[in-house]
Amino acid sequence: MHIGFIGLGNMGAPMALNLLKAGHQLSVFDLSASSVAALVEAGARSAASVAELARRTPEVIISMLPAAQHVKGVYLGDAGLLAHVAPGVLLIDSSTIDPMSAREVSALALTQGNRMLDAPVSGGTGGAAAGTLTFMVGGAAADFDAALPVLQAMGRNIVHCGPSGNGQVAKVANNMLLAISMIGTAEAMNLGVSLGMDAKVLAGVLNSSSGRCWSSDTYNPYPGVMEGVPAARGYSGGFGSNLMLKDLGLATTAAQQAGQPVPMGALAQQLYQTFSRQGNGHLDFSAIIKLCNGEIE
Amino acid sequence: MHIGFIGLGNMGAPMALNLLKAGHQLSVFDLSASSVAALVEAGARSAASVAELARRTPEVIISMLPAAQHVKGVYLGDAGLLAHVAPGVLLIDSSTIDPMSAREVSALALTQGNRMLDAPVSGGTGGAAAGTLTFMVGGAAADFDAALPVLQAMGRNIVHCGPSGNGQVAKVANNMLLAISMIGTAEAMNLGVSLGMDAKVLAGVLNSSSGRCWSSDTYNPYPGVMEGVPAARGYSGGFGSNLMLKDLGLATTAAQQAGQPVPMGALAQQLYQTFSRQGNGHLDFSAIIKLCNGEIE
Amino acid sequence: MHIGFIGLGNMGAPMALNLLKAGHQLSVFDLSASSVAALVEAGARSAASVAELARRTPEVIISMLPAAQHVKGVYLGDAGLLAHVAPGVLLIDSSTIDPMSAREVSALALTQGNRMLDAPVSGGTGGAAAGTLTFMVGGAAADFDAALPVLQAMGRNIVHCGPSGNGQVAKVANNMLLAISMIGTAEAMNLGVSLGMDAKVLAGVLNSSSGRCWSSDTYNPYPGVMEGVPAARGYSGGFGSNLMLKDLGLATTAAQQAGQPVPMGALAQQLYQTFSRQGNGHLDFSAIIKLCNGEIE
Amino acid sequence: MHIGFIGLGNMGAPMALNLLKAGHQLSVFDLSASSVAALVEAGARSAASVAELARRTPEVIISMLPAAQHVKGVYLGDAGLLAHVAPGVLLIDSSTIDPMSAREVSALALTQGNRMLDAPVSGGTGGAAAGTLTFMVGGAAADFDAALPVLQAMGRNIVHCGPSGNGQVAKVANNMLLAISMIGTAEAMNLGVSLGMDAKVLAGVLNSSSGRCWSSDTYNPYPGVMEGVPAARGYSGGFGSNLMLKDLGLATTAAQQAGQPVPMGALAQQLYQTFSRQGNGHLDFSAIIKLCNGEIE
Questions:
Q1: Nearest to A122 by CA among D274, D286, B205
Q2: Crossing angle for the helix pair B166-194 and B241-258, nearest 10 degrees?
Q3: pLDDT(B124) > 90
Q4: Is the pLDDT of residue B174 over 90?
Q5: Does B296 reside within a domain?
Q6: Rounded average pLDDT over A241-256
Q7: In 3D, which of A250, A253, A211, A206 has the Cα closest to residue A225?
Q8: Same domain for A73 and A157?
Q9: CA distances (Å), A162 to each of A130, A159, A169, B195, C4, in order?
Q10: Closest partner residue to B259 among D252, D263, D277, by Cβ?
Q11: Distance, in angstroms, between A197 CA and closest chain B CA?
């Protein structure tokens, strides 16, 4: 299949490579010449602009961009994707943006006869490289079915979350809960250890009890509890605190728009903002345990 | 084995019955005559006072009381357990109290030649009746080994958490994390549904992603997502919000004593306090989802 | 002076009337025919559109609109104010909106040779009617001086807060602190009374000590402490909780954009959102004391 | 008048000196020999123990101790004040402790025929030296009247807050509101400055508007806004963050006992705990502005 790919950053580049590996024909665009060059070397064709990429009429176009403003920049306006893409092309935006913006762009695409899915991912750069991402997909069922074989070249768990925008909704809801559970796990571990418990024993109790969560049993933030997690290597790698902060911003803003209280989510946003302001935004998001515990290195 | 049992409330009574069923000889004490009568009918001998029960010199004495003040009332003072129990008797307090008080009582017991374990439970009245409680045990390893066969008559998962007081530490750390995850799950479910997602689909996404936790996959608070949980029956039964509020009080007080910040735990305590103050303390703790969502019945 | 006025709602109408009373010539526009009719009866001329009002070339145009989207709707686009206003006209937006939007509109106005001030107010409908509003003004010093006589017809305290957007910054900073102090006062009063103090005596102590604030000494939320405040009349009138919620949304969003933690401000936003979600958004913002105290009517 | 004074720390010593200056006869006790020596040099007589001081039967005995455990240690037990003081002596405890403990000790004193007041102070070591403390007094009106001339030698503002314990209630309610307003002021100042406002201009707006509070107009935490406050000297001197943390602990614990939600108070407690844990407990409590703003020195 001929696929267009826009946005070759830390996530987009390995995703695009997996499409090539799966045998797809690929046209790519990015503002960074070196990012484009790496994909061309792997077998992709470069496009000089979004418009040129669109005019080649690939069957599917995938975008992977940092924020809503970039998505609007790529899709809208005279030089944008929607102004140049042929009717019937399936558009898939894998950026993580707010649901309202996703629905706005998708409504415009549908109006002019394109199909569009929002399909944000989880799994990080590791999952992008390994082709094991989770895709949370919003849009029409038929479009989801059409996209499935393409997405399966990049991910393992592909979930249809309902109509347009719902992929973004699922993503922000999940990541808000993840941030809350991570800080909760950090507090429980700090509290238990400060009161005299061994960290590994405590984690064992939590993981076999009702406190069990992904942050405690798969990604424990306390050093020495697990191997192979960021806590075991000084909180390098993983999913950065600043990225979590961005997702919490999307969640609390969406909650404001919906008139929905999220007191824990808002506190999580503030704690990550404080942690970031103290100079730790580059550390994995499990490093938030250090905000309340100066003894952890 | 001859076992003494003090405190025959909603938890203590079914625990004591399971000891009888396991073939143990039982002496019991409670201030409520009817509670005592029920156990006597099932085969236990009653004692007129804590002191009398102690003087019968059972090999093991178990207590199950509402709060630290009751534990101190039963164990300390001229009429208390410690003043009348024979040296060498193994004392097991299964009440949920603060770790400091547990350590204080246990230190006094050890000083006079008794052995003592703190062994709070989780699993609720259902687990007490079915004999499937989890015991989180603090105290010497040899005492833990001695207590194991007795505790196995009442529970399934018996965990040694380290020295004296650590059973209580594990309990408050776990329940604090549980409260945080439950409110986090409630917020994520409310947010997703208010933004247009189907509750079951959203729970499915969370449970296969990094937001997964016991509160989302085993005890989901959103009505219609799961069968057999309090959310499926108007939040009756289960673990009451006021009991969770009590445990959060223990956790935040212990954190104060340890100089350990627990911002999420403290917010959880305040939200349950608000929910209780609004007249909902008798509802299962998953009903906290109603605090921020007036549309859920 | 010939003044144009756009937006004749609860605030705009009495402000416009005060301009008439001060002897100014007034052209007005509003989507509501009845709002326009009331001003026409008082001596204003109506305009059929924003564009028509602009083409009459008043010396000053004032707008008073509910939110940023309305301000952008009125100022931008082919039918908007900026497209039709003559160069040199002084534009004053008294709406409360986010500083970023205020700066965006003002930058466009300056580019095309207009002068523009953001001048949000405090003082409510009472202050608007009495002409005692406070204006927090952002923009060039010369423009502030030019606007002063006009603003003095509507307000008493006119403060220059610095360059464009700073009026909005001062407004959101002040109202965020107001919300925090109000909830803090409510908590201190609830706590003291629940521990046995007389509300009036407690307020007296706070007001002569370091807890003193506008919410405690001028607008006390506890019933029976002061006369003439919303707490003395069932929390009717005053500054609605939903309006405070809107301002807290502006504050927390601006904080996100600035990367600035505001944990108390975010919690205040969540508590007002919860209070609103429970059906109390129409009550004065001091009614937040009821969120944590079910006994206050 | 012959007055006994127990507790000659940073606060107690200057208070005792002011009693001497006012012409009172003074007997003093403290565990620190050097603290006692300083008072003896100034004209006081030392007592070898609390019991000896009590047996000298001064007309009034004042205590100024760090925490409830010390108050109970001094007043209760075989060697304690209550066991040795003559009936009729007026006891005044100026320590800041929880209201429950204050009421417990005072009830015992009354039972045996003594009169007792709780009379915690505000004003810090500066106010203690200058004799300008505020006393918040709980106890019988007649006892308050009797104590007034004595307290006026040490303070300026002496307030009767109602029956026993109410002095402590007023103190914790005031200081909780103070902490909330201080953090709120810090957030508003940080937010405004990060969005482009001059700190002095912003403080001016707040202080003439509804955001006005003691923390903004008398003790502003932003450097450069005011002279003579801790923010003007690197946050040295003043009222230490760890002392505020202690008072917030008393407030939140009292709120738990009263079943009263104080979400802002609890968050303030957590923020000061975090600030303290990060190594800043010795700084004035207005330094909390640095928690969320790494650029302030």
A1: B205
A2: 120
A3: no
A4: yes
A5: no
A6: 97
A7: A206
A8: yes
A9: 27, 9, 10, 11, 48
A10: D277
A11: 6
Q: Residue D279: which pLDDT band, with cuts at 50, 70 and 90?
A: very high
From residue C134, alpha-carbon distances to B252, C5, C216, D205 in Å are: 43, 18, 20, 10
Backbone angles phi, psi at C6, to 5 degrees: -120, 120
Are D191 and D272 within one domain?
yes
Pair B42, B15: CB distance under 8 Å:
no
Neighbours of B142 (CB within 10 A): 9
How many Cβ atoms sit within 10 Å of the Cβ of residue B9?
Answer: 16
Domain end, chosen from C147, C164, C181, is at C164
Q: Which residue numbers of B have CB closer than 8 Å to D's CBs?
A: 249, 252-253, 255-256, 259-263, 266-267, 269-271, 273-274, 276-277
**Domain co-membership, D157 together with D230:** no
How confident is the model at residue C294, as a pLDDT?
Answer: 79
Tokens of D55: 């047996």
Alpha-carbon distance of B221 to B238, in angstroms, equals 12
Range of the domain at D77: 2-164
D173 within domain boundaries:
yes
Could you tell me which residue, B54 or D124, shows the higher pLDDT?
Answer: B54
The model's confidence at residue C292, banded by pLDDT at 50, 70 and 90, is: confident
pLDDT value for C125: 87
- Neighbours of B, requiring at least 3 CB pairs below 8 Å, are A, C, D
CATH number where D207 lies: 1.10.1040.10
The amino acid at residue C97 is: I
The nearest alpha carbon in chain C to B278 belongs to: C294
Distance of alpha carbon A213 from alpha carbon A209, whole angstroms = 10
Tell me which H or E stretch contains B134: strand B133-137
User: What are the structure tokens assigned to A119, written together?
Assistant: 């399909």
Question: Which of A108, A139, A163 is the endpoint of a domain?
Answer: A163
Task: Tell me, yes or no, whether D109 and D207 share the same domain.
Answer: no
- Asked if pLDDT for residue B294 goes beyond 90, the answer is no
Same-domain status, C154 and C173? no
pLDDT digits (tens, 9 = 90+) for C183-199: 999 999 999 999 999 99
* Confidence band of D162 (pLDDT split at 50, 70, 90): very high
SS3 content of chain A, % helix, strand, coil (to 5): 55, 15, 35
If asked whether residues D157 and D226 sit together in one domain, one would say: no
Three-state SS string over D132-168 comes to: CEEEEEECCHHHHHHHHHHHHCCEEEEEECCCCCHHH
Judged against a pLDDT cut of 90, whether residue C227 lies above it is answered with: yes
Tell me how many domains chain D contains: 2
Kindly state the tokens that stand for B77. Answer: 């003072």
For residue B156, being part of any structural domain is answered with yes
CATH code of the domain containing B94: 3.40.50.720
Give B-chain residues touching C294 at CB under 8 angstroms: 277-279
Residue B240 CA to residue A105 CA, distance in Å, equals 46
Nearest Cα residue in chain D from B260 = D273
Beta-carbon count within 10 A of C129 CB: 17
Average pLDDT, chain A: 96
What is chain C's mean pLDDT, rounded?
96
Q: What spatial distance separates the first Cα and last Cα of chain A, rounded to whole Å?
A: 49
Q: How far apart are CA A73 and CA A52, in angstroms?
A: 15
Q: Is the confidence at residue C296, as pLDDT, over 90? A: no
Q: Which of C171, C200, C246, C290 is catalytic?
A: C171
Share of chain D above pLDDT 70, in %: 100
Same domain, B36 and B138: yes
> Is C197 contained in some domain?
yes
For residue D133, the distance in angstroms to the closest alpha carbon of chain C comes to 11
- Are C181 and D180 in contact, with CB atoms under 8 Å apart? yes
The yes-or-no verdict on residue D124 having pLDDT over 90 is no
Q: With 90 as the cut, is the pLDDT of residue C295 above it? A: no
One domain, residues C31 and C160: yes
